[in-house]
Design a protein that fits this description.
It comes from Lactiplantibacillus daowaiensis. This is ABC transporter substrate-binding protein/permease. Its main location: membrane. It is a multi-pass membrane protein. By secondary structure, this protein is of the alpha/beta class. It has 3 domains: 173 residues, D-Maltodextrin-Binding Protein, domain 2; 91 residues, D-Maltodextrin-Binding Protein, domain 2 (3-Layer(aba) Sandwich); 210 residues, MetI-like (MetI-like fold), CATH 1.10.3720. It has 19 helices and 13 strands. The strands form 4 sheets. Strands 10-9-11-8-12 form a 5-stranded mixed β-sheet, sandwiched between helices. Strand 2 and strand 3 form a beta hairpin. The longest helix is centred in the middle third of the chain and has 33 residues. It is elongated.
Length: 492
């Protein structure tokens, strides 16, 4: 199962820890009111990665895509016993622990192992399920592969941050191990023969195999400890009263054998429902929602990014007294820092890091991060455009009695905008595609929706083809509109 942060999230966690007040942690451990806070709030936010059937996955329920599965049933039971409502927040598995530590979610139920390394950072309940591992292969290779030792010279895949990924790396010889963040991506890679096998939990392996006749499952024969093959609910460190209360629910679930008797059979029904109609037209609402959020993110980011870019460009060109020099230095440092760090890191830092002080929704965090990133690039376009305007234009404007501000506003900037319009148009097209990055924090744009469809239908290629076409339509339409205005400006 899932074991530890990836390298990227380790960096984010380190940055977050720099801005977490130490005194708050000490106070939280000294006075635990975690149970009281949840009951007072009336809502229990459950974080999960819905690409791991039958634990958690997407299914169409009453015409709406919904997170279902064994872990969701457990979450509902926990919330009911606490007397609160359950709210499910979907995100990539690698983001869950950071989200828990920064208060974005209240608990994790996502097939997570209570390993010693994790126990140092979060509190776990009693285990609610004991599983094992299989390796999923193409059925045509069933005679070739028998267990993990059969993949010598081959390629084995596993979800990054999981115990099966670590076991694949440490317990195989002469085997290339590739990690991916999504189970559906791994299965797609397997079926396209990029991988020879995919290591995953037995229930998940059985779910994929039962819904795809081209796949088969073989024993993994990994040597794993009990903590590495069991699942538990994770809470923030120091949430003793809350963990003790939830332990009573977990003990009841185990005593009454609810997982095998009720929760797994219910998940199996949803798995069968998903394969009744797997046509892409059946999921047009999901793709339409993805287009809507992609356009919202892009338009908002372009608007705010342009404003930020103008301010940064003017600040970078400021000269004179100490204040102007300081402003220029800050603007230059900002532009260089933003352009020197990945947008994915910026998105995650805005969502998780700034979220420590302001509880920003995922969509708002995504727009802020992309706007800040775009502003740094737009600033350089605008600065270059301003420098391209002949100095004689400025001198002519000043000779007419125009102030510096009026000269910049009415003479220089209009001409600069005309010169940099192609670059700004390219930035807009780029942002349409870059908006896909916010899917890592659970924003339901096109990439996120395509993953939902892939999880629903167990079809790997078809949803990818659909979003490729949709992205092309969006970018081609935008480029035609931008070219029209460019011709108008050139004519004027």
């Amino acid at each position: 199962m899932k074991k530890r942060f990836g390298l990227l999230l380790a960096l984010i966690a380190a940055l977050v820890m720099l801005v977490v007040p130490v005194g708050n942690t000490t106070h939280a451990q000294a006075a635990d009111n975690s149970l009281e806070k949840i009951q007072k709030k009336g809502v229990l936010v459950m974080g999960t990665s819905p690409d791991y059937p039958p634990y958690e996955f997407q299914a169409t329920v009453n015409g709406k895509s919904t997170v279902v599965g064994m872990d969701v049933q457990i979450g509902k039971k926990v919330a009911k016993d606490l007397g609160v409502k359950l709210k499910i927040k979907s995100m990539s598995f690698d983001s869950l622990l950071v989200a828990l530590q920064t208060g974005k979610i209240d608990m994790i139920i996502s097939g997570m192992n209570p390993t010693p390394a994790r126990r140092k950072n979060v509190a776990f309940t009693h285990t609610y399920y004991q599983g094992g591992y299989d390796i999923v292969i193409n059925k045509t290779d069933k005679a070739k592969y028998k267990n993990k030792d059969s993949f010598s010279g081959g390629t084995l895949g596993a979800q990054t941050g999981t115990t099966q990924y670590n076991a694949s790396k440490s317990q195989t010889k002469n085997t290339t191990v590739k990690g991916m963040t999504s189970q559906s991506d791994l299965i797609l890679a397997l079926q396209s023969h990029k991988l020879d096998g995919v290591a995953m939990e037995k229930p998940s392996a059985e779910a994929y195999v039962s819904n795809n006749k081209q796949l088969a499952a073989i024993p993994s024969d990994f040597n794993m400890s009990s903590s590495a093959t069991s699942s538990a609910i994770a809470f923030r460190k120091g949430s003793t009263s809350l963990v003790n209360k939830v332990n009573k629910t977990v003990d009841q679930i185990k005593k009454e054998n609810l997982v095998k008797k009720d929760y797994l059979p219910a998940a199996g029904k949803y798995l069968k429902t998903n394969t009744v109609n797997t046509s892409m037209t059946h999921y047009w609402k999901a793709f339409l929602t993805g287009i809507e959020y992609t356009l919202i993110i892009t338009v908002c980011s372009v608007f705010f990014g342009f404003i930020i870019g103008i301010l940064l460009a003017l600040a970078r060109m400021a000269k004179g007294n100490f204040f102007k020099n300081l402003l220029r230095w800050i603007a230059t440092a900002y532009v260089e820092f933003i352009r020197g760090t990945p947008m994915m890191v910026q998105v995650m830092f805005v969502y998780f890091g700034l979220g420590l002080f302001v509880n920003l929704p995922a969509l708002t965090s995504g727009i802020i991060a992309i706007s800040l990133n775009s502003g740094a690039y737009v600033a350089e376009y605008i600065r270059g455009g301003i420098n391209s305007v002949n100095i004689g234009q400025t001198e002519a404007a000043r000779s007419l009695g125009m102030s510096n501000g009026e000269t910049m506003r009415y003479v220089v900037l209009p001409q600069a905008l005309k010169n940099i319009w192609p670059s700004l148009g390219n930035e807009f097209i780029t942002l349409i595609k870059d908006s896909s990055i916010v899917s890592i924090i659970g924003v339901t744009e096109l990439i996120y929706q395509s993953n939902i469809v892939r999880s629903d239908t167990y079809r790997g290629v078809a949803p990818i083809v659909v979003i490729m076409v949709l992205y092309f339509i969006l970018t081609f339409t935008a480029s035609r509109i931008l070219n029209y205005f460019e011709r108008k400006m050139q004519h004027d």
